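in:
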């Protein structure tokens, strides 16, 4: 497979391939937090997130969620459909944590009466601000129909993941999704991993995600390995 570098982000490198509408994604071990203010490395994170994301996309695809994932091609690489990314990050929240807990004055860990969907303007220079459908309209970030689709998919993905993870004794606190357009269809893109989700052990409340890096809790790699083990039975 011929590949040419196209883009390098905080956690991944993107390469073109010899197929016009397919890209190769390489998962790095680099870790960032607080819009890039905190930087570091998590050993084997790229390998673990590639496997975890593969598992989640397969699960969601089997449950009717269209996505960009084609196949995992190596320990750190996966083949995906090329997307025109919508500059709207979609966050689903089930339990107050992080910025939401601070914003509404609830203690972290308090369950919300119902899941909520928030949308953020995907713009590093502005710090990815919280926006609503009116902002999205005037900024022309997505059409009204696309916004409706994002919300519908977000709630459905939350239901699928929450029900599945409950069986693995994992509480899905909140998570971030990114979407793009491929041949006119809105598809789920990016990744689903401990980088983009808050996972807590449902019995002990132990954090099993990137908050361990953000908050200097230690044992970051072990948390990622634990998620992979509970999902697949694989010991990394």
């Amino acid at each position: 497979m011929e590949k040419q570098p196209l883009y390098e982000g905080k956690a991944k490198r993107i390469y073109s391939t010899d197929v016009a509408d397919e890209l190769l994604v390489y998962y790095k071990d680099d870790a960032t937090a607080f819009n890039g203010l905190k930087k570091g490395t998590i050993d084997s994170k790229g390998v673990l997130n590639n496997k975890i994301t593969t598992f989640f996309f397969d699960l969601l695809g089997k449950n009717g969620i269209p996505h960009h994932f084609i196949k995992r091609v190596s320990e750190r690489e996966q083949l995906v459909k090329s997307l025109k990314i919508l500059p709207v990050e979609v966050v689903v929240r089930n339990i107050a944590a992080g910025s939401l807990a601070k914003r509404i004055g609830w203690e972290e860990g308090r369950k919300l009466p119902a899941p909520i969907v928030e949308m953020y303007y995907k713009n590093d220079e502005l710090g990815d601000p919280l926006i609503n459908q009116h902002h999205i309209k005037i900024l022309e970030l997505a059409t009204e129909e696309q916004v409706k689709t994002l919300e519908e998919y977000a709630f459905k993905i939350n239901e699928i993941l929450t029900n599945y993870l409950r069986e693995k004794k994992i509480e899905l606190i909140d998570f971030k999704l990114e979407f793009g357009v491929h041949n006119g269809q809105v598809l789920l893109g990016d990744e689903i991993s401990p980088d983009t989700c808050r996972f807590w052990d449902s019995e002990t409340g132990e954090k099993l995600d990137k908050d361990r890096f953000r908050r200097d809790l230690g044992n970051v790699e072990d948390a990622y390995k634990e998620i992979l083990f509970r999902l697949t039975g694989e010991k990394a």
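note: Residues 4-81 form a domain with the Phosphorylase Kinase; domain 1 fold (CATH 3.30.200.20).
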